[in-house]
């Protein structure tokens, strides 16, 4: 049985009879405070819900073959656990997006230990990245996989942060164009260069690799310029996939985001990472595993499951009782949207019946006469 402590002095309480309603009365011998202790069942049921959500158990394994569990925990699917602002400056932050459906993406930001922020959108774009990043203090270094619109958002929100493009994602992009078994000698050499990209440890190694890549471009320049005429008479590059791989690497070199982790000003203070493995392996993989264990959830519940996981792995989550009191629900959000819609309708009606009225529409006067009283 849980020990009951006095809310006034914090001392141990003892039983002191019962109330007329039959509830147990407790008495503090130190300050003579009398009280009744209520068990917070909502927090216990929320903990039961989270334990199930983060485990591999199915609902049929729960008490009552799932029926009792669903009845007690159904209301927790209405809650939206939202992130708080992060004002502490971090050395390195990792950002990535996870797709839960065709047009459902959740952008996630984390550091070495915790999830710092998340944002729901239809797809990765600059506006969504900006909304996520504005609630987090600017770090010294950012590691990402080059999502759409991220570079634009980075310049606007975190202009002083160094950007490191995930080296492994850069390698995978080259591999997608060349395949692991290229049919041409140029493809074989480019694929070898891409694999060597993962082995670079020093600034000198990076300079040597860049020079090798430029030598590859000069060596196969004429080969890459070859054109093919299709049945309609239109010309197109014969080795189009190799050209795309070449352009992707040239873009990273020109933007100076491929070897940011080797810069001296960063390596002096901390170990700068070259990949996005922290968020890919530590966050996204665990989220996919959770959704796989509970497959069959609707798209809305999949979103909320990700929200719950991210919030409970944030730096300082609230207690379960505080979560139930403060976090918005479907009902509260619907009320906000209803008030916004009513306000918009009111503003539109005012513009039609107020500001839109023109004096000349209701009064006629002679332009030559201007002798008003």
Written account of the structure:
This protein is α+β, with helices and mostly antiparallel strands. The chain has 3 domains: 36 residues, no CATH class; 125 residues, no CATH class; 108 residues, no CATH class. The protein contains 14 helices and 10 strands. A 5-stranded mixed beta sheet has the order 6-5-4-7-8, with helices on both faces. A 3-stranded antiparallel beta sheet has the order 1-2-3, with no helix packed on it. The chain has a two-stranded antiparallel sheet with strand order 9-10. Strand 9 and strand 10 form a beta hairpin. It is elongated. The termini are far apart. The relative contact order is 0.11.
In total, how many domains does the architecture comprise?
3
Q: How many strands appear in the DSSP assignment?
A: 10
SSE topology string? EEEHHEEEHEHEHHHHEEHHHHHH
Distance between the termini: 90 Å
Strand order of the largest sheet: 6-5-4-7-8
Note poorly predicted spans.
Answer: 350-357
Number of helices: 14
Helical content stands at 40-55%
**Sheet with most strands:** 5 strands, mixed
Indicate the mean pLDDT: 87
Global Rg: 31 Å
Q: Describe the global form.
A: elongated
């Amino acid at each position: 049985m849980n020990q009951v402590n006095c809310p006034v002095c914090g001392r141990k309480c003892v039983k002191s009879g019962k109330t007329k309603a039959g509830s147990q009365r407790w008495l503090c011998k130190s300050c003579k405070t009398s009280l009744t202790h209520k068990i917070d069942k909502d927090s216990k049921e929320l903990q039961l819900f989270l334990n199930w959500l983060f485990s591999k158990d199915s609902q049929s394994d729960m008490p009552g073959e799932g029926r009792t569990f669903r009845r007690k925990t159904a209301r927790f699917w209405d809650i939206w656990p939202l992130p708080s602002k992060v004002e502490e400056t971090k050395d390195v932050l990792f950002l990535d997006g996870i797709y839960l459906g065709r047009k459902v993406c959740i952008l996630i930001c984390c550091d070495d230990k915790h999830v710092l922020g998340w944002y729901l959108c239809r797809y990765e774009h600059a506006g969504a990245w900006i909304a996520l990043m504005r609630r987090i203090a600017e770090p010294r270094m950012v590691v990402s996989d080059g999502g759409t619109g991220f570079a634009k958002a980075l310049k606007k929100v975190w202009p002083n942060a160094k950007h490191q493009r995930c080296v492994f994602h850069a390698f995978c992009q080259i591999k997608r164009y060349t395949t692991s078994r290229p049919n041409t000698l140029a493809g074989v050499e480019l694929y070898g260069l891409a694999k060597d990209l993962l082995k670079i440890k020093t600034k000198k190694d990076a300079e040597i690799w860049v020079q090798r890549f430029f030598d590859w471009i000069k060596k196969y320049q004429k080969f890459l310029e070859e054109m093919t005429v299709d049945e309609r008479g239109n010309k197109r590059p014969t080795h189009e996939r190799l050209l795309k791989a070449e352009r992707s690497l040239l873009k990273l070199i020109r933007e100076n985001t491929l070897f940011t982790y080797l810069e001296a000003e960063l390596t002096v203070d901390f170990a700068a990472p070259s990949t996005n493995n922290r968020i890919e392996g530590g966050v996204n993989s665990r989220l996919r595993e959770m959704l796989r264990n509970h497959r069959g959830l609707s798209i809305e519940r999949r979103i909320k499951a990700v929200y719950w996981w991210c919030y409970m792995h944030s730096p300082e989550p609230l207690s379960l009782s505080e979560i139930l009191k403060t976090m918005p629900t479907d009902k509260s959000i619907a009320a906000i949207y209803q008030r916004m819609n009513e306000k918009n309708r009111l503003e539109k009606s005012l513009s039609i019946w107020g500001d839109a009225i023109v004096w000349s529409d209701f009064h006629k006067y002679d332009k030559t006469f201007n002798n008003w009283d």
